[in-house]
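Example for tutorial group B:
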């Protein structure tokens, strides 16, 4: 049985991860829900924790930044950033910013597995597909979680937990399938999709208590 039950809100603008540690539950009270503070690049050579992860991917140009300035504790020689720095730097250099990947997943007018993002750019860079961009956000969440909770045995790794992933109620079967595909690309082979209104209702029930 998994120790943690994890919920990931894969948002268009921000993503978040909350969890329950089942070892904290008792006969008298359920385990508390915790919000995971997500380490991310917030500035060059600066990593800090935030309660949310902005859903943006910035693809850095060659020699755009000093070597190692986008590194994370679990990733060295990084040439891209996910999160706060990606969003802020992308406002300055929009041709290298990938955003709204979630919206692209449900866009029927494009091949969502094809490398087409950033959509409007003159920069010479390797583009990624909406599925790959979504996977990048999930990969960041997974790596951040594992750095904090996996442990030496790896038993606490995110890929070994019970993971629920929210999707909009408007997502059609193809968009849902692509979301699961993105999760698998990030190494999350077993996820349960929950529609956002249903997740919100569960949150309301938890807040109401008995």
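The residue assignment follows.
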């Amino acid at each position: 049985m998994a120790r943690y039950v994890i919920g990931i809100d894969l948002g268009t603008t921000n993503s978040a991860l909350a969890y329950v540690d089942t070892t904290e539950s008792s006969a008298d009270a359920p385990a508390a829900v915790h919000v995971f503070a997500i380490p991310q690049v917030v500035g060059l050579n600066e990593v800090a924790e935030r309660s949310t992860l902005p859903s943006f991917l910035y693809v850095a140009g060659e020699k755009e930044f000093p070597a190692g300035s986008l590194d994370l504790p679990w990733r060295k020689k990084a040439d891209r950033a996910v999160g706060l720095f990606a969003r802020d730097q992308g406002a300055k250099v929009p041709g290298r910013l990938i955003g709204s990947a979630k919206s692209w997943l449900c866009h029927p007018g494009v091949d969502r597995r094809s490398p087409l993002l950033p959509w409007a750019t003159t920069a010479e860079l390797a583009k990624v597909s909406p599925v790959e961009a979504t996977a990048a956000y999930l990969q960041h969440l997974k790596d951040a979680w594992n750095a904090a909770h996996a442990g030496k045995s790896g038993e606490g790794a995110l890929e070994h937990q019970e993971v629920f992933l929210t999707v909009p109620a408007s997502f059609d079967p193809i968009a849902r399938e692509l979301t699961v595909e993105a999760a698998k690309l990030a190494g999350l082979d077993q996820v349960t999709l929950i529609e956002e209104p249903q997740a919100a209702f569960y949150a309301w029930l938890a807040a109401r208590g008995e």
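The CA atoms of residues 90 and 97 lie 5 Å apart. Compare this with the pattern of hydrophobic and polar residues in the output above.
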